[in-house]
Amino acid sequence: MEKLNCRELLAEQSGWSAILAATACCTGAVFCFVKWKHSRKIHTKIQKAVARREQSKLDVENAVLQFRKQHPEAKSAPVLSLSLTELSKQLKEGSLTPATVLHTYMEKALEVSTELNCVTEFLLESREQLQEVEKYREGLLYGIPISIKDNVACQGHDSTCGVSIKLDCPEKEDSVVVQVLKRQGAIPFVKTNIPQGLLNYDCSNPIFGQSLNPHNRQKTPGGSSGGEGALIGGGGSLLGIGTDIGGSIRIPASFCGICGLKPTGGRLSDRGLTGCLPGQKSVTTALGPMGRDVDSLALFMKAVLSEDMFLLDPCVPPIPFNDEVYSSSKTLRIGYYDTDGYMVPSPSMRRAVLETKALLEKAGHTLVPFTPPRIAYAMQELIVKGILADGGSTLLHFLREERIDPALKPQIITYRIPRIVKKIISLIMKPLFPRISTTYESLNGISSVQDLWKQHVDIADYCKEYIAQWKSLGLDVMLCPALGPAFKFGYPGKLSVAASYTILYNLLNFPAGVVPVSKVTEQDEEELKHYKGYYGDPWDKLFKEAVTGCQGLPVAVQCVALPWQEELCLRFMKEVESLTQGTGKN
After folding, report:
1. What pLDDT shows up at residue 41?
2. CA gap 536, 534 in Å, rounded
């Protein structure tokens, strides 16, 4: 009897095992099917986005051909050779028409993007806007085509941020800045590429792919406003809008040999901007212009700092552009540094600052040495901990179902490491690589609301310290390195630390711009062979690799002013531009 019961029990257990196994198999199959189905859905969305772009290219190509047939007298070369100031003058005088200018730049943008993959979509409604542009003939940007970064809202178009979750979500209205630009007569005509998630200074995503540098196809144009940098640097746009949270305007401008301005956060409206770090307040994001020369940036600021912006967004302080400050020729007292003491600059970065300093002194300005205070502390305790206060969870949430782009993968792998493992890595690395050790600790973010509030106090105290040192020297503006030259593909994701030269001014919320002043020389390349960083860690070695093989590429300097002094910052940038180009002050 006992044997019979055992057999029945075994048979019953065997039956349950089979049921459990079948259930597990079914569950696994369902899970795999759901995952496959979701993957197909994402793939379909990406295919649709790429198809939209390709169709917009074909439509533009046909529109340009049609225009050329109807207006055989309209020539591209004379239009493309004009600066923004000269083009604006001819449009106002009537010697050029907005239609000629728009179709010329559409054609050029198509050519440039075919080579550099920098445009995500052509805005075909720009041709319809030609019918209404005469109403804005008095606008400062009448008839000027303008390129728009992907994450700046344009009605009826996606702001993808390089992630599929934001595809098929067309914006219901234009961002405030785009609305103001249209009222000033500007014609938005393309949207431009960005890195996946925006928190990276390469320019690649799984939807639209990798953008290329206009001066060297083996280099990145920078990011996150890399599509803008490539398009303007390649001649496909005169003026564009970028955004900047750590150098996202200034790094592409430096890499691509153009000018860019990051204003004080809040000087321009941010209504209609999209990102993947909503709620992050420790490090300030700002919207700003990118263009071929400093006068283009000044004209943009003059146009948007208007009554229209102040009415559309009452949160923007009603401070019109002060042309008197921008046009001033009084000598300046200029602080300068050629290294921040945290990341040794490349030989060309340092040379650019020192040569520009010499030219400024020769022009009668006073140059005063400046040592930025406690950059290691600012980077690790304030910037990294501030941007990733949540340990990166918000960014990872946006990327939870995404295929991670190779350019972003090194960052994401690090962010996904469990907190306790990061702490262990930090402890292990401390004796050998203290900078990497501290950064891993900072990547865990901030553990409580109380600590976040304390960090906000620490940021305010650091800003006071920086301004006090600035004021004690009686400085008007600051000259310092801009990150460069252009990196090889894939290195920005491994070298967030190298953005210390630009991201500092997002933390401080100072206006800062870059101006190209030189090119990498053979001597720079030779000196780079002997490059040694401050820490001798893997990041120093990676930086050397990233900027090797850059002879002939643009090199820029960074110009900085105190908060709300964009006009003074631009005036200083104009002085640097004039002196380094040998044209003298205009």
Report:
1. 86
2. 6
Active site residue 248: yes
- Block residue for tokens 């970028």: 242
Q: How large is the average pLDDT for residues 408-432?
A: 97
Report which of 411, 372, 344, 339 is spatially closest to residue 547, judged by C-alpha positions: 344
**SS3 assignment for 481-498:** ECCCCCCECCCHHHCHHH
Amino acid at 46: I
Tally the C-alpha atoms within 13 A of residue 345's C-alpha that lie toward its C-beta: 25
Whole-angstrom Cα distance, residue 485 to residue 464?
32
Query: How confident is the model over 19-62, as pLDDT tens digits?
Result: 666 666 666 666 565 565 567 789 999 999 999 999 999 999 99
Q: Is the peptide bond before 224 cis (omega within 30 degrees of 0)?
A: yes
Token pair for residue 181?
């630009």
Q: Is the pTM of this model over 0.70?
A: yes
Task: Please tell me which residue in 149, 191, 357, 385 is annotated as part of the active site.
Answer: 149
500 is catalytic: no
For position 531, what pLDDT does the model report? 97
Query: What is the C-alpha to C-alpha distance for residues 179 and 504, in angstroms, rounded to an integer?
Result: 31
User: Which regions of 75-178 does DSSP assign to beta strands (E)?
Assistant: 119-122, 145-149
CB 368 within 8 A of CB 335: yes
Q: Looking at residue 405, what DSSP letter applies?
A: P
Q: How many CB atoms lie within 10 A of CB 504?
A: 27
Question: Among 164, 248, 442, 496, which one carries the catalytic annotation?
Answer: 248
Which member of 224, 282, 442, 500 is catalytic?
224
pLDDT at residue 583 is higher than 70: no
Give me the DSSP letters along 195-261.
-TTS-SSS-EETTTEE--BTTBTTB---SSSHHHHHHHHTTS-SEEEEEESSSTTHHHHHHHT-EEE
Nearest to 508, CA basis, from 375, 390, 389 = 375
Residue type (1 letter), 190: V
pLDDT tens digits, one per residue of 210-231: 999 999 999 999 999 999 999 9
Residue 399 to residue 403: CA distance in whole angstroms: 8
Element (H, E) at 68: helix 2-70
Q: Sort 573 into a burial class: Cβ within 10 Å, 0-12 / 13-18 / 19+.
A: buried
Longest CA pairwise span in the chain (Å): 111
What would the 3-class secondary structure string for 500-516 be? HHHHHHHHCCCCEEEEE
Catalytic residue list contains 426: no
Alpha-carbon distance of 511 to 286, in angstroms, equals: 9
Looking at residue 386, what is its pLDDT? 97
Q: Is 76 exposed, middle or buried (0-12, 13-18, 19+ CB in 10 A)?
A: middle
With pLDDT > 90 as the criterion, what percentage of the chain qualifies?
92
Cis peptide before 485 (omega within 30 of 0): yes
Confidence of residue 3 (pLDDT cuts 50, 70, 90): low
